[in-house]
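Figure 3 (text version): structure tokens given as input.
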């Protein structure tokens, strides 16, 4: 049974910068292999299902080597050893995140080889083990769908304490992370088997949290809403949200500001992320988009298919904590050092956004669960 719940827009705003810590080994100066492919990965288009190639990346001679898995995924490849690198994000109960293929991995070292971990069978990948997901907020806006989640990251092969990093179809060498990774969704194309390739998406994962956004390819500014250059600024800045651990909910929302942009004195300004190793200390607080028509669920009703899947790598020992500050890539609503809030931080509530808003009917499918939006606090089609 689901419960309808209303969340006032902009209930809390005080968020702390939680930079991603992933850093890469310097390139080997003696390696003379070329870096860039002839065609950037994000410019490649493959229609589902017949256009999907065995591998989307076809230049194994480049410096990052060959694509580690494959894109042609089916019932044969499905299972906990799958190296499927075609992901899906359809709804609150049907999505795949990218996580490492081998236990106890650090995202910064393995982002090129992430594989699809899904909430449902049928996508040819792995299944997220039961109990790994401990809270989720799904948001559908006019420009994108987004999910922010809390998880036990060791259950998807991420080393305990790893602050994580960003997956997206670009990467410094434009081959994508994971290399060759493709993303599909039916959220903008009528549901069912009408999967459409989503060109612009990003996933931050680490610090026992993740946030994942795929942008409607029909939108002219999908590249801005799914901007990928703020890779050290985590979920707080790339997907500002009010997700809470222990709560599973689906909401409608207004669009966020483009990541990296903010409004000050009526002017839209753009923040520049400094180059590593300069500390990222944003000078602004991102606006949390208004949300409405939130519907809450029990995790068991969303993820029945995961009941039989247990976590891999039980033999590995979590790395000891080094006592540093929580370096959450993700930590959706947390302020540093409290990775698992149980309540919404209360401070300084602002009035619900959008005076004079209009309401309009809108439905969206959570794969079998239709949610009718009746409570709107914000304007959806501004
Ligand atoms: C590069 O090659 C030179 C000459 O063989 C060697 O001395 C040097 O250690 C190598 N550098 C690295 C980073 O491997
Ligand atoms: C299933 O996927 C595997 C791995 O990509 C591929 O080798 C095989 O041809 C696929 N089978 C079908 C029927 O498409």
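Below: residues designed for each position.
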């Amino acid at each position: 049974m689901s419960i309808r719940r209303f969340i006032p827009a902009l209930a809390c705003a005080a968020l702390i910068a939680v930079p991603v810590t992933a850093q890469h080994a310097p390139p080997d100066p003696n390696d003379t292999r070329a870096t860039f492919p002839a065609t950037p990965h994000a410019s490649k288009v493959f229609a589902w299902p017949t256009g999907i190639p065995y591998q989307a990346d076809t230049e194994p001679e480049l410096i990052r080597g060959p694509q580690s898995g494959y894109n042609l995924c089916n019932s044969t490849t499905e299972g906990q050893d799958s190296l499927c690198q075609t992901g899906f994000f359809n709804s609150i109960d049907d999505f795949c995140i990218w996580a490492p293929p081998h236990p106890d991995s650090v995202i910064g070292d393995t982002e090129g080889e992430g594989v699809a971990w899904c909430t449902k069978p049928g996508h040819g990948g792995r299944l997220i083990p039961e109990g790994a997901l401990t809270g989720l907020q799904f948001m559908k806006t006019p420009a994108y769908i987004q999910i922010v989640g809390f998880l036990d990251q060791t259950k998807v092969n991420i080393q305990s304490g790893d602050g994580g990093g960003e997956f997206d179809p670009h990467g410094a060498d434009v081959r994508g992370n994971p290399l060759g990774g493709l993303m599909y969704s039916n959220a903008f194309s009528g549901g069912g088997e009408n999967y459409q390739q989503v060109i612009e998406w990003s996933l931050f994962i680490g610090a026992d949290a993740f946030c994942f956004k795929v942008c409607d390819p029909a939108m002219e500014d999908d590249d801005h809403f799914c901007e990928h250059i703020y890779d050290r600024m985590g979920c707080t800045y790339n997907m500002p949200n009010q997700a809470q651990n222990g709560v599973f909910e689906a909401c409608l929302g207004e669009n966020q500001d483009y990541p990296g942009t903010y409004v000050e004195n009526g002017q839209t300004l753009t923040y520049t992320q400094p180059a590593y190793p300069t500390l990222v200390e944003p000078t602004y607080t991102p606006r949390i988009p208004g949300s409405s028509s939130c519907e809450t669920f029990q995790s068991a009703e969303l993820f029945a298919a995961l009941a039989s899947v247990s976590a891999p790598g039980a033999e590995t020992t979590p790395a000891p904590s080094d006592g540093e500050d929580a370096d959450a890539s993700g930590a959706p609503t947390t302020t540093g050092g409290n990775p698992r809030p149980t309540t919404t931080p209360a401070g300084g509530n602002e009035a619900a956004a959008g005076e004079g808003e209009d309401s309009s009917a809108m439905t969206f499918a959570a794969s079998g669960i239709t949610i009718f939006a009746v409570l709107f606090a914000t304007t959806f089609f501004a």
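Residues 251 and 294 are 4 Å apart (CA to CA).
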